[in-house]
Write a structure and sequence with these properties.
By secondary structure, the chain is α/β, with parallel strands linked by helices. The chain has eight helices and 15 strands. Bound molecules: flavin-adenine dinucleotide and FE2/S2 (inorganic) cluster.
């Protein structure tokens, strides 16, 4: 292994600056690299996170590179590593490799009307793009954010959902599948596709980005097509596969001929729609 190759496998130490509870099962971790460098991510990329004694896990960047001096990860407690991360307090040190992966195609999205659709904890990766768009208003003049969660308690970034409505040119609507009888939530209920059917867009000048759980993709894609989003480079989505190396060497993350870690995790719909098991 040459020194350059070795460096992609070596985790860089980072210190936990802040931990915020987002929902009962998700936390936001603010980190800084110990060498003082910026991480240098682009929206849509991920890092491989490590803790001594645990296998690594890929986690998407939840913050935009326009926010300097730190980076943020929104982490759902899913198993061993993410469970251990949830126990950490500010001052703890973790390892990160990356950023890796193909980011959102900002060069195509620039100037278009954007529909940004998130389901569940997919709002964390999408937040890096939302922040980026908000920080470049001249490039992203019209942005519609649509977000669906299972219940009011599962809504992530609740204050930011309101703040994003205040950005000129932005709209932000969210909905929950179920409202428990005891909940004081008085927002919208129903599936995200209902919000999408209600929105008015100019299909010739629009692009959509979808990040969410697999069952969300097909109905959302169908609703986008009803809105007239057809043809190439109109719908971009993020796919998750189990990963090991994160850099296209081990073959753990393949979707037919594509490597999710290297060719993705962000894909144009037409690149993966016909691949078996992709959606
Ligand atoms: C590109 C990418 C970006 C991701 N971004 C985020 C993120 O921003 N926030 C977040 O909370 N999670 C994210 N994930 C999922 C996260 O990597 C897994 O939840 C994590 O690896 C679980 O590790 P663990 O050691 O805690 O769980 P384990 O103890 O290893 O496993 C817990 C369960 O999760 C399953 N699992 C492991 N990896 C994945 C995976 N990639 N997809 C689906 N199920 C998996 C296992 O099969 C097992 O059933 C991302 C995954 C990918 C591939
Ligand atoms: S994770 Fe090793 S090739 Fe993608």
């Amino acid at each position: 292994m040459n020194p350059q190759e070795a460096s992609i496998y070596a985790p860089r130490p980072a210190t936990l600056l802040q931990v915020e509870n987002l929902t009962p099962q998700e936390k936001l971790f603010r980190l800084r690299l110990d060498d003082g460098c910026e991480l240098g991510q682009q929206p849509g990329q991920f890092v491989q996170v490590s803790l001594a004694g645990f296998t690594e896990a890929p986690i998407s960047l939840a913050s935009s590179p326009t926010r300097q001096g730190f980076f943020e990860l929104g982490v759902r407690r899913a198993g061993r590593l993410t469970g251990a991360l949830h126990q950490l307090l500010p001052g703890a040190r973790i390892g990160v490799r990356g950023p890796f992966g193909r980011p959102f195609a900002l060069e195509v999205l620039r100037g278009r009307q954007l529909l940004l659709l998130a389901g569940g904890c997919g709002l964390a990766p999408l937040r890096s793009l939302i922040q980026y768009c908000g920080d470049h208003p001249q490039d992203f003049p019209r942005v519609h954010i649509l977000y669906g969660a299972r219940s009011p308690a599962d809504l992530m970034f609740q204050q930011e959902l309101l703040d994003w409505r205040q950005i000129p040119g932005f709209s932000c609507r969210y909905t929950v599948d179920n409202r428990p009888a005891t909940s004081c939530y008085n927002g919208e209920t129903g599936l995200i596709t209902r919000l999408l059917d209600e929105i008015v867009i100019d299909p010739q000048h629009s692009c959509a980005v979808i990040v969410g759980p697999p069952p969300m993709y097909r109905p959302v894609i169908a609703a986008l097509r009803r809105q007239g989003l057809v043809g190439e480079k109109r719908i971009m989505l993020s796919l998750e596969r189990q990963m090991r190396c994160g850099v296209g060497k081990c073959g753990h993350c393949t979707i037919e001929h594509l490597y999710c870690c290297k060719d993705g995790p962000i894909f144009w719909l037409e690149e993966i729609e016909q691949l078996r098991g992709a959606l």
